[in-house]
# Entry
Amino acid sequence: MSKTQVDDDAIIGLLRGVIDPELHDNIVDLGMVRSAYRENSTAHITIALTTAGCPLRATIKRDCETRVKSLPGIEKVKLHWDELNAKEKARVMERARKYARDNASPTEIQPTTRVLSIASGKGGVGKSSVTVNIAASLANRGFTVGVLDADIWGFSVPRMLGLDSRLEAKIIDSDSTRPKIIPEERSEGSGVLKVVSTGLMVDTEETALMWRGLMLAKAVEQFLRDVQWGYLDYLLIDMPPGTGDVQMALARLLPQAEMIVVTTPSLSAQKVAVRVADMARRSHMPILGVIENMSAFVTPDGTSWPVFGEGGGVRLATEIDVPLLGSIPLEPSVSAGGDNGTPVSTSNTGAAATAFNQIVERLVSDIAPPLDLSSCSAHTISEVSVSVGNPRK
Ligand SMILES: Nc1ncnc2c1ncn2[C@@H]1O[C@H](COP(=O)(O)OP(=O)(O)OP(=O)(O)O)[C@@H](O)[C@H]1O
Ligand SMILES: [Mg+2]
# Structure
């Protein structure tokens, strides 16, 4: 590493979204980034860990790479490793303790929650269907999964998950007079879904129109601050179609948020989706990949009908330089599952269910694994958790 290299602000900005799961803070503010600069199309980043053999190294590496590769002009990310010295470690611990004391997070979402925002350029391409099916499949694997319906007045998550009760608000903290909204819970396999939607607050789907005047970004912000989410492995956010302000608010409030873009195979959906990807990059939100929905309809005799065209997913993924996570066929079971509150990913074994489960498998094992709490040093975690309390509750 050359000492003459000047740190690159854009790279540093993106690294602020990389959270050390053990210390609940980003690696830049923790003082773990020794240097970050670019040399032609390669980003060189040196990170100092609490111990050289830290098991979180793989998670941090993957997060750094995903984030920094989203920068235009960066093709390769080269990570160099170092170890914090005793003085630096003491400073990091002080910061972790301060976090424990203040728990100053502006939202109720823990930094160790993987936040996946499901977005698209056009409406009606299947964001909500993708959100609930991925969420259900994750929960089915034993994860605790939050679902935030950020489509404030076009909500559809409650119907798709078969929920029709009303959300309650309770005073949780005896020091506060401010009530917290309790998410609606639904168990799924060995896991649980915790759902918040304006659809669980208003009386009928029709009264949703009353929310029209509400500032969307403000409402989403409130859902992040005033909901008692508790422990979550994943938070999935069903985005309203193409609204920049909600996306910006999310990027600001949840620096760890990452985006999945949904598109159909048609050219028009692909073109609009490119704009959403551009916006995500401007707000430093990494894009994990593309899901093509409503791919060919396959008749029982095996004939494939490309109702909405072909190849939009691959073209979009290539254009914005991210992987195609999978293609979901057009299948009546998907809409039927949405209409009767039983997501196809956990209630069916057809081609669409298989495709959803393969995507989730890829997310969990490779693209967006849970930010687990396997610690670098038992000492660090126990010290922090003494004052934070066990976050897994
Ligand atoms: N793969 C699929 N096969 C069959 N029907 C589907 C599929 N994906 C979605 N649908 C149906 O298409 C309609 C639109 O899907 P969905 O509501 O998920 O889209 P959306 O992008 O969330 O829409 P909006 O922009 O209005 O929020 C729904 O009726 C849904 O059941
Ligand atoms: Mg929707």
User: Anything to note?
Assistant: The chain is about 35% helix and 20% strand. Residues 127-128, 151, 156, 238 surround magnesium ion (ligand 2) (CB under 6 Å).
